[in-house]
TrEMBL record:
Organism: Scleroderma citrinum Foug A
Protein origin, superkingdom: Eukaryota
Keywords: Membrane, Transmembrane, Transmembrane helix
Protein name: PGG domain-containing protein
TM annotation in the entry: 53-70, 90-108, 120-148, 160-180
Length: 206
C-alpha cells in the first residue's frame, strides 16, 4: 500500500473515487466461476453509487450556478480581451465540466448490470462510472483557477496566498490520510472487513 504510487495518485487527483469503484466492482464479481456477477452485491453497489451520483449532481448544479454568477460580475464580463480573458476561459471550462458531469451522471445514475469480460472491459466501466465525479472535481479546479487568476490580476495577493496555504494543507492531509488508512469497500460490511483483518493479524503472529 505504501509503495503503491497509483493508489496515491488516485487519492490526490481523484479523491480515491476510481479506487472505490474498482474495489466495489471487484467485490461484485464471483471468482472461479468464469465471468459472473453477484446480483445481490451488484444491487448494493448500485444503490451506493446512485446515492453518490445524486450528491455529485446536486453539487455540480450548485457549481454551475456559481459559475454563472461569477461570469455575471462586471469586472469579469467586461474583462480585458473579452472571452480571451483567462479567468473567463477557466470559468467557461468549469461550467462545461459541471454540465457534462450532470448529464453523464443522469446517464449512469442507475448502473446497468455488468458482467466482467476481461481487463479492458473492467477498466472501461471504471472510467465510465467514475467520469461524472472526475468531471465535477475538475469543474471545481477550473472554477478555483478562475477566481485565483482574477484575484492575481487585480493584485489581491492575500487571497492568493491563503488559497496556496489551504491547497498545501489539503494535499498534506490527503497524503497522510492515504498513509494511515486502508481502502474499505462501501459495499462490504464493517464486521466482515475488520474480522478479516483481525484473522490476518492473528495468522501473522503465529
Amino acid at each position: 500500500m505504501w509503495t503503491n504510487s497509483s493508489s496515491l495518485l488516485n487519492m490526490v487527483a481523484f479523491m480515491d473515487h476510481p479506487g472505490f469503484i474498482r474495489r466495489s466492482l471487484a467485490h461484485t464479481q464471483i471468482k472461479n466461476i468464469g465471468y459472473s456477477t453477484d446480483v445481490k452485491r451488484w444491487r448494493k453497489f448500485s444503490q451506493t453509487y446512485t446515492e453518490d451520483i445524486q450528491h455529485v449532481g446536486l453539487l455540480a448544479t450548485v457549481l454551475l450556478a456559481a459559475n454563472m454568477s461569477f461570469l455575471a460580475i462586471q469586472s469579469i464580463d467586461s474583462g480585458p480581451g473579452g472571452l480571451s480573458y483567462l479567468p473567463q476561459k477557466f470559468s467557461y471550462l468549469s461550467l462545461l465540466a459541471a454540465l457534462a458531469s450532470i448529464v453523464m451522471g443522469l446517464a449512469v445514475r442507475s448502473p446497468r448490470l455488468f458482467t466482467n469480460h476481461g481487463p479492458f472491459y473492467s477498466q472501461a466501466i471504471i472510467l465510465i462510472l467514475g467520469f461524472p465525479f472526475e468531471l465535477f472535481l475538475y469543474s471545481i479546479l477550473f472554477f478555483l483557477l478562475a477566481v485565483l487568476v482574477h484575484c492575481a490580476k487585480h493584485k489581491a495577493m492575500v487571497q492568493v496566498v491563503c488559497a496556496g496555504i489551504l491547497a498545501m494543507l489539503m494535499l498534506c492531509c490527503l497524503v497522510i490520510y492515504w498513509l494511515i488508512t486502508e481502502p474499505c469497500n462501501d459495499v462490504d460490511s464493517l464486521d466482515h472487513r475488520f474480522t478479516k483483518v483481525t484473522r490476518e493479524r492473528k495468522a501473522g503472529h503465529h
